[in-house]
Design brief:
9 helices
Amino acid sequence: MRQADSPHATRTLALVSFLESSIFPIPPDAMLIPMCLANRARAWHFAFVCTVASVLGGLAGYAIGFFLIETLGSLIARIYSMDLATFDEWYARWGLWVILIKGLTPIPYKLVTIASGAAHFSLPVFIVASIVTRGIRFYAVAGLLRWKGEPIRLFVEKYLTWVTTVFVVGIVGGILAAKYVF
């Protein structure tokens, strides 16, 4: 917690958020949560830094997929056991929904960014979807921590994966229902 309120913490948060969107394995939540708890008045600022840096890092991941898929992109895909052919199929079938759903879940965002570039997905749509999904994710965490503090941290650490999974299943279920029932 002391480190979370240090003078260099915000820059480090930005760097981690940027790198996590393209190559780094640790999500920025590992820094965002203690920083928001250490200085709840700056929670919105931390969420903003996380969002902007994550979207910029997402553009780097997109560039890796678009320009470097045969070299660096393939290496990262192998490290994360990522099947780019499956992502191509998902983009062909679901398009924007791939980014919206995966951007909100604990699934590593770098997989979405690299696959989006490799699939030559629309860059403007990618940017807007990234801003929306990453913003919702980081502002929700910061807002809850600003509002309730320590009890929310305990809840997030214990149940975030389940809550996010239920939310995503609900979205996917709604999409499938709309597509096949109506």
